[in-house]
Design brief:
Length: 337
């Protein structure tokens, strides 16, 4: 037995449940994942088995969640939840699918992967030994079963860690490994590609029209930066010099209009993406400012210019973040005396 006692609660009296809505079937499912023991009790409530440490539920109290929703009872059988698999991660010995970062990104974007030889049914998706959620294998095809909101969070994390894949299919170069001026320029181009990929995904996923437009503008800005750097790279390789042909423009006032401010919502994916975008821009500003200190004179000017360019993006996102903050304080009455 996985646990000593498995009480069943909140079962509708006049509703017949399928045979698999049984604690023994849950134990069987968990054994398939190699889980030998769970730290708590299983409770059945609202078409799901929950993991809890509570011995009994208080009477007369409305309870939304009794613990961790471990397994859902569906019409076609039991399904492990992504959060449940994450919680049991260290205990899961079987049905783990270790992914590369590119494979994970493809799955999070909704693209199926062909991976022959995997066990059929539900599996635990893992990156670098850490379980991230639920997947499903049918035939030779693996699909992501992680909830949409969680997928977006994970995509943001990948972007922040510099794991967004460039259009050429190569990983972004880690800044600390670049040495020569040519290598620095290559790293800068990939840095801009990373930002472009992040903002394109954010624009695609955002529901708010105003925020969607801002992310689209930032994606186009990053594309401009990339083209600018590509020309600078070609010129530097050919002549050893760089000619500055454009200067950064403050996009904050032009983009953050009163109309867009009215549309901003202070919760959900947009708020998280704005915060992640700020982290991305801070990293870009720091990268260019640091390289400007040791680069040849012409390149130092280029990096200083790009640092100002990225700073204008950071200022825009910071203004957007501040607008959200003020909105929350106003709506929830958190204004200080």
């Amino acid at each position: 037995m996985l646990c000593a006692s498995i009480p069943t609660i909140s079962t509708p009296k006049e509703v017949s449940l399928p045979f698999y809505a049984d604690p023994s079937e849950v134990e069987k499912l968990l054994r398939e994942f190699g889980v030998e023991e769970i730290p708590g009790e299983l409770l059945f409530r609202h078409d799901a088995f929950w993991l809890t440490t509570a011995k009994e539920m208080p009477k007369g109290v409305k309870i939304h969640a009794v613990g961790i929703r471990l397994v859902r009872v569906q019409k076609i059988g039991l399904k492990p939840t992504s959060f449940g698999l994450m919680f049991l991660g260290p205990r899961i010995k079987n049905r783990r699918v270790e992914l590369t970062r590119e494979e994970l990104r493809e799955l999070l974007l909704g693209h199926p992967l062909r991976k022959p030889g995997l066990p059929q049914g539900y599996v635990a998706l893992s990156l670098e030994g850490e379980v991230l959620g639920c997947g499903e294998v049918r035939g030779e095809v693996l699909r992501c079963q992680i909830p949409r909101a969680r997928r977006q969070e994970l995509l943001i994390v990948l972007a922040q860690e510099g794991a967004v894949i460039s259009s050429a299919g190569k990983m972004a170069v880690k800044e600390e490994k670049v040495e020569t001026p040519e290598d620095v320029l290559k790293g800068a181009i990939l840095l801009e590609e990373r930002g472009k990929a992040f903002y394109e995904h954010a624009a695609l996923s955002a529901q708010n029209p105003g925020v969607k437009e801002i992310f689209s503008i930032l994606a186009r800005e990053e594309e401009r930066h990339k083209e600018y750097l590509a020309k600078a790279f070609a010129e530097f390789v050919r002549t050893g010099k760089v000619t500055l042909t454009s200067q950064p423009v403050d996009v904050t006032a032009a983009v953050l209009t009163p109309e867009i401010k009215k549309e901003i919502e202070a919760a959900g994916f947009e708020a998280a993406a704005i915060y992640a975008g700020m982290a991305l821009e801070e990293k870009a500003v720091a990268f260019y400012a640091e390289k400007a200190k040791t680069a040849p004179h012409e390149l130092a000017k280029l990096y200083e210019s790009l640092a100002k360019w990225e700073q204008s993006h950071l200022d825009l996102l910071a203004a957007l973040d501040e607008e959200l903050r003020q909105r929350v304080w106003h709506e929830r009455g958190f204004w200080p005396f």
